Amino acid sequence: MHDRLFIPGPVEVRPELLQAIAQPQVGHRTQAYMDVHSATIPLLKKILYTEQDVLLFTCSATGVMEGSLRNLCQKKALLTVNGAFSKRWYQIAGFNGVPADKLEVPMGKAVMPEDLDKALATGQYDVFCAVFNETSTGVRAPLEKYSEVLKKYPDVMFCVDAVSAMAGDKIETDKLGLDVCLAGTQKCWGLPTGMCVTMISNKAMAKAATAKAPGYYVNFVDAKKYNDKHQTPHTPAIPILFGLHAQCNHIVNEEGLDNRWKRHLDMQKLTHQWVKDAGFELFPEKGYESVTLSCIKKPEGFDFKNLNGQLSKRHHCVISNGYGDIKEQTFRVAHMADTKVEEMKQLFKWIDAILAEANVTA
Amino acid sequence: MHDRLFIPGPVEVRPELLQAIAQPQVGHRTQAYMDVHSATIPLLKKILYTEQDVLLFTCSATGVMEGSLRNLCQKKALLTVNGAFSKRWYQIAGFNGVPADKLEVPMGKAVMPEDLDKALATGQYDVFCAVFNETSTGVRAPLEKYSEVLKKYPDVMFCVDAVSAMAGDKIETDKLGLDVCLAGTQKCWGLPTGMCVTMISNKAMAKAATAKAPGYYVNFVDAKKYNDKHQTPHTPAIPILFGLHAQCNHIVNEEGLDNRWKRHLDMQKLTHQWVKDAGFELFPEKGYESVTLSCIKKPEGFDFKNLNGQLSKRHHCVISNGYGDIKEQTFRVAHMADTKVEEMKQLFKWIDAILAEANVTA
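^ Those are the sequences you sent over. The predicted structure of the assembly is below.
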């Protein structure tokens, strides 16, 4: 039997969405395709609170993290580093010969806006990249505060990796002045992997048009040209588009945006309460906790492998170990996508019961 | 009702494969994922006749066409140009700042091995790129002859776009000495888009390890590192992997490789006979016709739109218009993936009937 996923991506996909992705294929230059594409984009814009472009790239988010640097950086990029995925974005610059500096703080902490301001004031940078929701540490960056800082530097492109937050944690992209906001479909979108949903500002698009070697597969200008005629430049992941169309309809017209944001906040609140009651401690510093996943410190001698094994064996579900450098010190529970508050309550009851037994036998 | 696709990709996907892709998701760092990944790769190696690496990238083929140049070209690339997709590969070089020359012949023709030899003899090039099966013109390049030439230039990387041929037209990658052989899943693989299956030689892998700015998302060395532990560096298109696993099993263990190649040759033969009988003419020059798709010249006054409209309306199937510069002069019929000879026979009967009516009313 399949293990229900409480891991921070890929997430559990509703059976209705799995059936949506399994529809027969259509030609990607046909009206049938364009109908689905053109019905999906306006819904994506609502969910991202933007009147600018939302484009679909057939790759995981990493592809567009790389593409953002190649399309937009002409001087030097500044990147926050406070976990595995933000560190990866910094490394991507190196793999592409893009000059880059990092604003690094220890894992579990968020980069402070004052430090961002100080760095940007040097005038060296034309791109700033931040990971909104560090999937490795459960730290949520203070985007609103970064946004205030960025207003002083209108020539700096504000690029946000919203991988494990988009469609779960409300992000008003236009109001925040984001130039790029990207996320793969396998996290809060509640779909399998395959596409990267990307909001791109008009300002970023204008700058991308002046790039010397922007690359071809993730090319903002080309993607917009095709998107304007309800297509993509390269054959898209049609099954994922079918799923995304169904899911956007669900989010906007069935669940409702505000209800979706509230449900995620409710799941976060419940999880924090459980963490406290169970005697655990969150890994992120207070005030910077992710809304969509919780990274929790392992107490001394905590047997994660046994816990997850028992969850799988008895209840056909799994949570996640820590990631990267803090793999041994932490574990993670996702509360994202289409998970219900009641499912989280049930999960915590199961975990409590397993841990209680372990204590008895310990 | 859904139109059955006789277009050169995306192709019709068998219902069993659509159900395979709609399985519940698994974590991409779990044993459940690794079991499917590690069961699929050896089957892919059989289908590609290689003992070297076969890697999976989550993007359409264009992503790996770009990646091949970035990972492998350190001097200058030489690319055949004889259609829309080979022209694209040449353009990709420009978008990436990779120095490149083209060996161009008119559409419908194949680049001759003598010309390739002459160009390589200049010693300028370290990468040679050829499109095996030009989806726009239906021209099949003489890979065996290119292979003979390349033996004289062991330092030149031999990269082949096999997009609309791989898994339909037999390609013995090791015997041909290919360094890269790539194809998206939405053509002869008989699956939806989402992954690019890529054979990479040990020689190419060694060279990629010395690249200065190979890029990150399509990074050969990184992809191999993860593939060796039955994973991918970035979250893969898990639904497509599920489908690919089922399809590889079908190809190797149910249909059988030789039967699959023979069925494609039979469909080609049938199509050529129909073209002749119906008074049409093939677009490619004789001796260089694709095994998997036929590009056919439109006779004077030929109403393709009516033909395809009637096919859709009466028989719920579609063929394809021409592509790019020869869109108005040609139309295309795909005979690839899991299409049966009987289905092609039926399709041609339907087309004949529609054309007979059109002649009467003309």
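Chain A touches chain B through 55 residues (CB under 8 Å). The two ends of chain A are 30 Å apart (CA to CA).

Shout if you want it in another format.
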